[in-house]
Amino acid sequence: MTSAVTKSPAFKFIIAGVLIVGAISWLAISGQRDTKSYYVTIAELNALGSKAYTRNLRVAGNVKPGTIERNGPNADFTLIEQGRTLHVDYVGSEPPPDTFKDDAQALAIGTFGRDGTFHATQLQAKCASKYAPAKPGAAPLATPRHFRPRSPKPKA
């Protein structure tokens, strides 16, 4: 005994639409949850405890000089921030950026392992010398050849 309403084509389209919207919503929510990453400092990472092992994280710091070991497109290095260090194992789909050098500011995106190593799948870096503030009393950068300082206008 089925009613005429459940046999109608309009009812079937409404049910199909609700199922499709529900499936798309579930995929969007679960996908967003999987790609979300939290920014933490090295100190905060150590304080997270067991929560650190289950989250996607972003950790920033300066690359400790002399710690970069390149293995093809991958790299092992140590980040340092306020005296705290973090060993990072980068295994990504692209090699580290050209600006990835000793003392460069770096942002590692990935997960923290129970072995105490941060396993990064993405790596961003700024050139240390390019963004460093000028030292007091240092000579200014060379001026372009086409630049000519204006002389004061004569008073008439």
What descriptive keywords fit this protein?
4 helices; alpha+beta; 156 residues; OB fold (Dihydrolipoamide Acetyltransferase, E2P); 7 strands; flat
Tell me about this structure.
The chain has helices spanning 4-7, 9-35, 42-47, 128-131; strands at residues 37-40, 56-63, 69-71, 74-81, 84-90, 105-112, 118-126. With 156 residues, the protein is of the alpha+beta class. A hairpin with a 2-residue loop joins strand 4 and strand 5 (84-90). It starts with a helix and ends in a 25-residue tail after the last helix. The model has no long low-confidence stretch (mean pLDDT 81).
Write the layout of secondary structure elements.
Layout: H1 4-7, H2 9-35, E1 37-40, H3 42-47, E2 56-63, E3 69-71, E4 74-81, E5 84-90, E6 105-112, E7 118-126, H4 128-131
Parallel strand pairs: 1-2, 5-7
Antiparallel strand pairs: 2-4, 2-6, 3-4, 4-5, 6-7
Task: Please provide the count of β strands.
Answer: 7
- What do we call the CATH topology of the domain at 36-131? OB fold (Dihydrolipoamide Acetyltransferase, E2P)
What is the gyration radius calculated from CA atoms?
27 Å
Helix-strand topology string: HHEHEEEEEEH
The top level CATH class name of the domain at 36-131: Mainly Beta
Describe the sheet with the most strands. Answer: 5 strands, mixed, barrel
Structural class: alpha+beta
Oligomer: single chain
Low-confidence segments, given as residue ranges, are none
